[in-house]
Amino acid sequence: MAKPLLEVSNLNAWYGESHVLHGVNMTVGEGETITILGRNGVGKTTTLRTIVGIIRERKGEIRFDGKDMLGVPLHKTAHAGIGFVPEERGIFSTLTVEENLTLPPVVAQGGMPIEEIYELFPNLKERRSSPGTKLSGGEQQMLAIARILRTGVKLLILDEPTEGLAPVIVQRIGEVLKTLKERGMTVLLVEQNFRFASRIADRFYLMDHGQMVSEFPVSELPQRMDTLHKVLGV
Amino acid sequence: MAVAATHNHAEPRVVLSARGLTKQFGAFAAVKNVDLDVHHARVHALIGPNGAGKTTVFNLLTKFLQPTAGTIALMGTDITKTPPDKVARMGLVRSFQISAVFPHLSVLDNVRVALQRPNGLSTQFWLPTSALNRLTARADELIEAVGLKRERNSLAADLSYGRKRVLEIATTLALDPQVLLLDEPMAGMGQEDIGTVSSIIREVAKTRAVLMVEHNLSVVADICHHVTVLQRGEILAEGDYATVSQDERVRLAYMGAEEA
Amino acid sequence: MTMIFGIPLQAFLGQLLIGLINGSFYALLSLGLAVIFGLLRVINFAHGVQYMLGAFAAMLMLQYFGINYWFALILSPLVVGLFGAVIERFLLSRLYKLDHLYGLLFTFGLALTLEGTFRYLYGASGQPYAVPAQLAGGTNLGFMFLPIYRGWVVVVSLLACIGTWLLIEKTKLGSYLRAATENPVLVQAFGVNVPVLLTFTYALGAGLAAFAGVLAAPVYQVSPLMGSNIIIVVFAVVVVGGMGSIMGAILTGYMLGIAEGLTKVFYPEASNIVIFVIMAIVLLLRPAGLFGRDA
Amino acid sequence: MSDMTHSSTTTVRAERSATASKTYAAFLILGLVLLIVAPAFFYPIFLMKLLCFALFACAFNLLLGYTGLLSFGHATFFGGAAYFSAHVVKEWGFPPELGVLTGVVGAAVLGLIMGFFAIRRQGIYFAMITLALSQMFFFFCLQAEFTKGEDGIQSVPRGHLFGFIDLNSSTNMYYFVLAVFVIGLVIIWRFINSPFGMILRSIRENEQRAISLGYSVARYKLGAFVMSAALAGLAGGTKALVFQFATLTDVAWQMSGEVILMTLLGGIGTLIGPIFGAGLVVTLQNYLATSQFPVTIITGIVFMVCVLVFRRGIIGEFYASRLGRKLGFEHRH
Amino acid sequence: QNATGTASDNKIKIGILNDQSGVYADFGGKSSVEAAKMAIEEFGGKVLGMPIEIVDADHQNKPDIASNIARQWYDTEQVDAIMELTTSSVALAVQAVAKEKKKIDIVTGAATTDLTGKACSPYGFHWAYDTHALAVGTGGALVKQGGDSWFFLTADYAFGYSLEQQTGDFVKANGGTIAGSVRHPLSSTDFSSFLLQAQSSGAKVIGLANAGLDTSNAIKQAAEFGIVQGGQRLAALLFTLAEVHGLGLEAAQGLTLTEGYYWNRDDQSREFAKKFFERTNKMPNMIHTGTYSAVRQYLKAVEKAGTDETEAVAKAIHEMPVDDVFAQGGTVAKNGRMIHDMYLLQVKKPDESKEAWDYFDVLDTIPGKEAYMDPAKSGCDLVN
Ligand SMILES: Nc1ncnc2c1ncn2[C@@H]1O[C@H](COP(=O)(O)OP(=O)(O)OP(=O)(O)O)[C@@H](O)[C@H]1O
Ligand SMILES: Nc1ncnc2c1ncn2[C@@H]1O[C@H](COP(=O)(O)OP(=O)(O)OP(=O)(O)O)[C@@H](O)[C@H]1O
Ligand SMILES: [Mg+2]
Ligand SMILES: [Mg+2]
After folding, report:
1. How far is the CA of B165 from the centre of ligand 4 (A)?
2. Looking at chain B, which subunits does it touch, using at least 3 CB pairs closer than 8 Å as the criterion?
3. Range D317-326 average pLDDT
4. S-S: D81 plus which of A17, D237, D266, E140, CB 3.0-4.6 Å?
5. Considering only CB atoms, which chain C residues are within 8 Å of D294?
């Protein structure tokens, strides 16, 4: 495995009184693409949000690039090199598409230039001066991914990026992620679309009840199909 | 499964029809001149690339948006100018693309709130809440049918995203509508729920009309009798799934190379 | 003499101009209110009090430090803005997670406290503040005698309004502000220090109110009550314009100032409710307000 | 917000709410007994004032606590009803019960008009619109002939209830007010725990969804608004008889602020919280009148502290406390 | 308990009930309590061997609070008389309570003539001023000074109307004319529209039939539009020293108004004012001094009656002439009206003012008999 970029150990998190994560352990190596699988409600989204630092009621250890992230305030995580695409997309309605796209501050060199982004997502170019939330659901998803690509982060965290997207778009996003990977981007994503995930991931974590219950590389996928079918009902 | 009350005529007839439906947002036409017929006892799928105007069509049909041009008729009555709550009372009920539940009511109460209306129990401010207890049996039936029995007493807010979608279907069914409009009912659902919901929809559609937007093509192939493909606000193709999925333009615009 | 609706044209023009002057105050105040509301989703009930504080700060600066009008015009908004920043940072910011109504209630309490304190210290009848010597006197425009100071008010408030609008709609800072309104957590996750932004916004709004206060000091009596007398009208202005629309707030401010001015001529008894009546009509025809985006 | 009477769901909850209902009933009876004997210990006019404001606050809370609409114009209904009742009793010789009823009807009509405009918007917009409209009503009262301007309608006779109970006796008057108060409270309690109340709650939770289920949201809101206005009118009309005058104070926007403070202090969305809140505010104002502290400053500070730290109000905090929970009250959110 | 007002409790207790934190706090407020204490101290804190106590409360301009406090004072705290009672709704409400409880009240803070008219009480008195006296003072006397055509800026509510109407009557009675009037809403901030209308009317006097901040704002803006320089006169119908102080001479110069007292009028008034100033750091207006006079007269009446019993004291107040720093040769009519001279005052130019608070020139003295309404026409049923 490559040098670890993100190490999470014994991570616990709470929503008020309800304890949702019960000791999550995982590692993401530099340049790897990791997919978390799991049924609805097992805590996948929560894991991502806790790593990013949106959920502050947390205990355990999160190391990014060797640095302890637990005490880092939320607005500094992006500067450390973590980019986040939330499940609900988070497009701003008072901003135009283009303003949305250029909103996140560039934190490091190596981000994708705007022209390239527009090439990748022609829909966005066409509607760039309309208000962000006037886009369709799928267009919003593209915008949400696109805007992080600009910033030059090292680790891209995506929560169900293909949800509600037309198959063509899903394919395109798959290609984009592969391209990013070739450029050395590290990706951590949560995905229900198994076929999509299997095409791009290097490694999988399977989650249940707020913990990682197993971990395996893509090569082991065929032999694990049966158990996965059972656990996920794929 | 006791989801649907029994009606016995299953011959296909048009219950909801739109003619020349158009919606302009400023200079941008999201929906252009769409004709649509939804039949009784049929599952009708509306598919198309993102931004094609599917949700907008839903908003127009349910009157959450006022069409720029065109007419809509529900069971022979013109509803082009009817307010949305009235349309719902006439028997056309929708679900939302982003889940819509009453977060701080329990699952049971979510369903009972929906049941209250057809049962005429909504304006009685002089009755105690226990008057609603007579709706509980029916509510439990619906909850069980969609597989939410375990969560019956939790607050809707505490459900995961996928379970909320399921709950939304249950409340929609509670109204016993003649026409159901479901906006991506399976989005965010796990495989087991997809199975349950598919069979519910199939069951329900025996006695009423269903129009749904769905990106999950295996579901579409599985349960839909008729498919309309939208692209850039216009109808691109229409027919049963087999026909539509062979259409070259549809494959190019929507399904991509590998699917089907 | 030419007559308009039974009034000499000259008098009519004079009243139009006066309406415009009043509109300047409405515009400045509703602008600040709209900035704070648009970005923090707080109806700043203390806005009237901050306007009053601006006037008082100018008056006290003159009295105790001999600071003249021109410096006060800059210093007083800074001082009040700083005060606003402190309030936001330590108190108001704790309410953002909650229903927006709590922000309204908190600032209502703040307004009561501050107004009460100033009434306690300075009485209700107010304090004098003179027109700066450079702007004293007036010119005869032919149709009316225009005090120079009032002309100045129109010009400078127009500039302030346009400047603020540009800042919010056309700059990067503005786009951060707008985005933070909708989803502060996400904007923060993108690497923007949102709490500081919000503090800045509140301070900006409070500062604008104080700026209007300094402008008002030579014209109106500097009194603890000056804020509560005007604030409810300004609320109505903002409702008519459509809350959250910066340009809407500015234009509506001027328009309603003029509408009110004309009512004072044709039917003075109704001049205090004309804005509310317009509000009611607008609500019937365009519930989101004249310039509002639909909620 | 906790509503104990709601026939609830979980078994745990059901048990709890059974305990709660018992404790609650016990408290209610205790409270009623206390109110019945209170005139022996407290100054009756003070008690009557307290009851009027308590009812006013409860009526207000019906709107804020159960439909989530913050009205900043409730003084219109309270003060308006006071004017109507005072006018018909003094000038037209109506008996007291009809006088109060006139106030209620008048307030309901005002509620219908104001509600018609205000329910077009939600949240903060709603608050500002009600504020503006009530300011309009204030100016109307200031200028109208029958309100007697800043003098107010003075020396309103209390008269005889049903023709034979002399309300000039402060004991009789007190029990009349108490009866009005209890009736008002029962109406509110029934209203929020009815099928209608259930729909109101769901509208507050998710308006779009309620529409899509076929509820004409505007009508439900208007219904709640008018009900709240009418009950505020009941309080206002009664107050006019208690004090024998009706003045501008009760229609001024500061009064709308005060009733919010009462509700906030007592606990938004609790049935009995506003009663405590009203008691506290009325007592505080009376106390501050003769103290060295300037009233507005203290009121303002209480407001801020409440919003910042005791958001649930006295009763809300009590329900959420360990003792409260032991007694079976639970607090959601 | 003292329900009928007969038995004495061996102490004299006076309540000062006024606005101490609201819009009328400058009018009287806490300083009035000091004025009352000055009167009590003159009696050595005792009358008829009984100690004199004073209590005060802030009614916040709310009649229900005032009425509540008045009841508690009379019923349970053995207060014998309540004074000041700023604003008419409060004064009327408390006078009704006092009448019912057969207790004494002396109003110095409210202006309505109803207190000694329809709503009069055998135990209620109206000191200091009322709208009638203000109207006669400013309206009548100013015409004699040459201000014979008037334009009114009137606050759009009953108080404004009655001031305008009463003043207008005296203007006309003295041979003047009314050029017009405009009604402005209560608490307007901007008066320039109205002032322009007044200016173009060409009237010699602009009468401000409003009060408080409205009057101040109108005067300030009149200065800005050069109205006084243009040769018109401003007459404020209800305005006192306290407000002139708030406005400053620069803006207020040339303004005409009527008060029942001016501190810098003669040696006696100056002496009282200096003492008052030492305690409160401001010079007294007619309300402060009126409250002082009311307390003093009440105590004298107790002395004369030999008891604090209501009927006897009320009788004594009615009978005794009032002679003090506030009123010289004042009399109390059957309807409770204390009749005394009023003064027509004009605000000095800044360079004419010789010391702090030296604000007025006395233009004229209006004899009490002229200033106040004939009790027989007051509509009070005690007079016949
Ligand atoms: N804001 C919240 N407050 C309380 N509980 C929550 C909250 N958000 C989520 N939960 C609960 O935490 C658990 C984990 O939720 P999470 O959103 O992480 O699930 P998930 O694995 O992402 O599911 P899905 O595939 O449906 O998105 C769920 O049981 C959910 O009910
Ligand atoms: N209120 C609006 N104002 C302006 N444009 C809008 C509005 N609502 C939708 N649109 C635009 O109309 C187009 C169709 O949107 P719609 O939401 O109907 O798409 P959709 O087919 O449902 O897509 P998806 O599958 O991604 O949900 C999009 O391009 C969108 O940007
Ligand atoms: Mg998730
Ligand atoms: Mg859609």
Report:
1. 15
2. A, D
3. 70
4. D237
5. 116-117, 119-120
Q: How far is CA D278 from the centre of its chain?
A: 9
Structure tokens belonging to residue C109: 């309490």
Say if the ipTM goes beyond 0.90: no
Closest to E27 in 3D by CA, of E291, E276, E210: E291
Ligand nearest to the CA of D333: 1
Please tell me which of the candidates E68, E75, E159 has its beta carbon nearest to residue D286.
E68
DSSP state of A3: P
Residue C256 at interface with chain E, using a CB cutoff of 8 Å? no
C-alpha distance across the termini of chain E, in Å: 34
CA dihedral C55, D261, D310, D192 (to 10 degrees): -140
Looking at residues B187-205, what average pLDDT do you find? 79
Contact assignment for D9 to B108 by CB distance below 8 Å: yes
Which residues are paired to E330 by β-bridges?
Answer: E322
At E99 the three-state DSSP class reads helix
Taking an 8 Å cut-off on Cβ atoms, the answer to whether A166 and B215 are in contact is: yes
- Ligand 1 binding pocket includes A211 (Cβ within 6 Å): no
User: Which structure tokens are listed for B117?
Assistant: 């209306």
Ligand 1 geometric centre to CA of A15 (Å): 9
Question: Which protein residue has the closest C-alpha to ligand 2 atom 10?
Answer: A134
User: Per DSSP, what are the bridge partners of residue A19?
Assistant: A14
Q: What is the pLDDT of residue C210?
A: 95
Q: Give per-residue pLDDT as tens, A113-147.
A: 889 888 878 888 888 888 887 887 778 888 898 88
Q: How far apart are the first and last CA of chain D?
A: 7
Rounded Cα–Cα distance for residues D205 and B108 (Å) = 15
| Cβ–Cβ below 8 Å for D151 and E112 | yes
Name the closest-CA residue to atom 16, ligand 2: B53
- The answer to whether chain C touches chain B by having 3 or more C-beta pairs less than 8 angstroms apart is no
Q: Residue E261: what residue type? A: Y
Residue B226 near chain D (CB below 8 Å) = no
A138 Cβ inside 6 Å of ligand 2: yes
Q: For chain A, how many residues are written?
A: 234
> For the stretch D272-288, what's the b/e string if a residue is b when 16 or more beta carbons lie within 10 angstroms of its beta carbon?
bbbbbbbbbbbebbbeb
Contacts of E29 in chain C (CB under 8 A): 123
Distance A213 CA to ligand 3 centre (A): 17
Provide the phi-psi class of E61: left if phi over 0, else alpha when psi is between -120 and 50, else beta: left
The rounded distance, in Å, linking the Cα atoms of B151 and A72 is 37
Q: What is the pLDDT of residues A143-168, one digit of tens each?
A: 898 889 888 888 999 998 887 677 77
CB atoms under 10 Å from CB of D40, counted, come to 7
Helix (H, G, I), strand (E, B) or coil at B92: strand
Ligand 2 atom, smallest distance to B233 CA: 14
Map tokens 């011959």 to a residue: B11
Q: What is the pLDDT along chain E (384 residues), one digit of tens a residue?
A: 333 344 467 888 999 998 887 778 888 888 999 999 999 999 898 888 888 999 999 888 888 889 989 998 998 888 999 999 988 889 999 999 999 889 999 999 888 888 998 889 999 999 989 889 998 888 887 888 888 899 999 988 888 888 898 899 889 888 889 988 988 888 788 888 888 888 888 899 999 998 888 898 899 888 888 888 888 899 999 888 988 998 889 889 889 999 999 998 899 999 999 999 999 988 999 999 999 999 999 999 998 888 888 999 999 999 999 999 999 989 999 999 999 999 999 999 999 998 889 999 999 899 999 899 998 888 888 887
Q: Does B113 touch chain D (CB under 8 A)?
A: yes
**Which of B55, B59, B102 is best to mutate for the D interface (most D CBs within 10 A)?**
B102
* Cα dihedral E154, E160, E161, E162 sign: negative
Centre of ligand 1 to C-alpha B161, Å, is: 7
CB-CB contact of E321 with E329 (8 Å): yes
